[in-house]
Amino acid sequence: MNTKTNIIWLMADDMGYGDPACNGDGKIATPNMDRLAREGVRFTDAHAASAVCTPSRYSVITGRYNWRSSLKKSVIGGFTQPLIDSARPTVASFMKEQGYSTGAIGKWHLGLDWQREPRTDPTGSHHRGEPGNVDYERPFRGGPVDLGFDRFFGLAGSLSQPPWVFLEGDRATAVPTMDKTRSPQHWEGMPPGRMVPDWKDEETDVRHLEEARNFVGENSQQDHPFFLYLTPSAPHSPWSPPEFLEGRSGVGPRGDLILTIDWMVGELLDQLDQLGIAQNTLFIVSSDNGGHDRADYERTSFGHKVNGDLRGFKSQIWDGGHRVPFLARWPEIIPASSTCDHLIGLHDLFATCAEICGAPLPPRAAEDSQSFLSSLRDPGAEDIGRTELIHHSGNARFSIRDKQWKLIDACDSGGFIESNWRTPVPGEPAGQLYRLDTDPGETRNLWDAESGVRNRLLTRLRAIQDARGSRY
């Protein structure tokens, strides 16, 4: 029987800081995430490396900031080439070397090298849409199984992007032959593409949970530990919850998808108990970025604050875009019912796994990752862990966090809404500077008033950007 620590990393898609009841206003009942917090720790200052999904996921898998890669802003689609170089160590390849069975289940969204037939359609296609010459019956390359995962089951990109077909291992499980039409639940633009004839958006995460439970069950009685990277589609658009949860949140269809995440957490918690492996399993629940950019709809319609009292939302450089829920349970290691205000990043997973395994990080790997194991063990300790962190928006705006200070190297939100992009006008501060311990809502810009802090943080930001030949 395995005595090493199993690790489950469940990362929701667009779940805001205020969505779990234990973090926010309680408008959405989340008893299972609340249980995780009650039996473990709730972090209040955890951040995705980016305010959008592809770069955030790149950072989790590689332990490095995504802006060091070829993708400098925005996200990619289901037919984009792989973003992670096959020679780069990943948290999965590292854990596999430590004797772990590794599984990736859910949304991938980091690119795949599909094999293609000669193009017969000379008109081309939308960059996120269906290219028209993908050979779905042949294996793709550059996916999870080429990057250290023993098992993969899930989607190529977001649920709002083609192709709508489950992938398993290194190939599609079927050939998508039907055009998919946009439904009212697609609050974001949906590119054209095809789906398999029996595709149902509302059943996607139900299937993901089934595969995750199979992976946990198959590995629970082995003489080696497991590492599960579980990335549901919920609560990202399209907002099509499973039928048994539809209408139950009282906060609209997206709220029902928060219930979907909570249901998945509960099912896994119960399974760990039934298998008798809860004691040696670290179970973490978080999100790839802040809550969606229609957060005002839920606030005005239902009184629910998707991102709590934070300013901004998904894609933006303000904390609402990248501060995320972060709950962890590890019986006998993490003190129950604890809260931790230490600064951590999701890309710190890699270094944390290395410390848990008692193994050094591979050479030239995870250069931006820093272990938060000490914060798990002693959430109330002072002056441990990170003091600084870099944030990146959907439209390539940078910020640097240094203890209580946050500097934004831009005067706008840095989000996807093009009408908000701008440069400073004469007499206006060139950037933004906030002191988060006294102004967590980022309402008082101290750019001019605190010039010493501003200049120090700008210098530090440039130094980090320039390090290792990675100038943006």
Order of helices and strands: EHEHHEEEEEEHEHEHHEEEHHEEEEH
Largest sheet, in brief, is: 11 strands, mixed
Tally of helical segments: 10
The shape is globular
Mean pLDDT across all amino acids: 93
Describe what this molecule looks like in 3D.
It is a single chain. With 472 residues, this protein is α/β, with parallel strands linked by helices. The protein folds into two domains: 6-386, Alkaline Phosphatase, subunit A; 397-469, Arylsulfatase, C-terminal domain (2-Layer Sandwich). The protein contains ten helices and 17 strands. The chain has helices at residues 31-39, 53-62, 91-97, 204-220, 252-275, 295-302, 319-322, 349-357, 373-377, 451-466; strands spanning 6-12, 41-47, 101-107, 151-155, 167-168, 171-172, 178-179, 194-195, 226-231, 281-287, 323-329, 338-340, 344-345, 388-392, 398-402, 405-408, 432-435. The strands form three sheets. Strands 1, 2, 3, 4, 5, 6, 9, 10, 11, 12 and 13 form an eleven-stranded mixed β-sheet that branches. A four-stranded antiparallel β-sheet has the order 14-15-16-17, with helices on one face. A hairpin with a 5-residue loop joins strand 14 (388-392) and strand 15. Helix 1 (31-39) crosses helix 5 and helix 4 (204-220) runs parallel beside helix 5 (252-275). The protein is globular and about 60 Å long. It starts with 5 loop residues before the first strand and ends in a 6-residue tail after the last helix. The model is unreliable at 122-128 (pLDDT under 50).
